[in-house]
Amino acid sequence: MNIRRAVPAALLATTAASALLLSGCAGTDDARADTGAGDRLGVIASFYPMKFVAEQVGGPHVKVTNLTKAGAEPHDLELTPKQVGKLSKADLVVYLKGLQPAVDEAIKQNKPRHTVEVSRLAPLEEHGTEVHGAEDEHEGHHHEDAEHGDPHVWLDPTRLAAIATGVGESLAAADPANAQDYRARAADLVTRLNGLDGEFTAGLATCARKDVVTSHAAFGYLAERYHLNQIAVNGVNPESEPSPARRADIQKLARDKGVTTIYFETLAEPKTARTLAQDLRIQTAVLDPLEGIKDEARSDYFSVMRANLDALRKGLGCS
Predict the structure, then answer these.
(1) Residues 39, 73: one domain?
(2) Which of 2, 239, 226 is nearest to 130 (CA)?
């Protein structure tokens, strides 16, 4: 399925503050005690990219708890009663509706004081297993409701920048005493993300190939932003298995387009990607969708994204 052109980053940044989903006006002293945050805001993030933004923007004023364990697959998250209790008493919850049904249900039932649902800041699009770069014209470009779109918005740094701006406004609303610092830290993160966007734009500007074969359809926004073509073995669900017909299609596309690399990811089983690569006698490499990081002491969003850029440049023959 093909897609419409990307929402301009400037528009997303401009509208971020007005698109917030902030709920509740109760005091936060109880929440801070119950979430173990002391004098800091108790913030809960549903999975790693949300945790990264909340920590970067919140700085010393927040204590961020990630509902998804490091290195775990976020799609399959099941909440413990203790996690649900902490979520209900948090000062702020940052999440992406539709990615983790257990989180959606817990928020619906427990109504935390403040929430940021990030697809309201960076609207989702529907992506199929094949996504073409934004410079191409194709039939069938369309926009879907957030609940039915591709959730992997954080892989476009400009969309994550819009989320950072919105999280800054949400923290400012939840903690007015530190509003100026939240906004300043959000602006700094936006500057860094825009710099990363520039690195990708320059690094992928002159490549021998544009077709990126991935193990699952996580890289639609990245492909759209940097004029690549994503050809995914599986759909948005990383655990699904391709049919024999889909395997045959991938093999034909890879041969026809001179693909040299099939990319697999860190949290999903790489068997299918490796088998296809062996059949085609081509190489494999890691392309990380950043849904979770196993060792956050050694890696973060920026370092993993730069590793992704290096892997793409090698696989696509970029000069």
Answers:
(1) yes
(2) 2
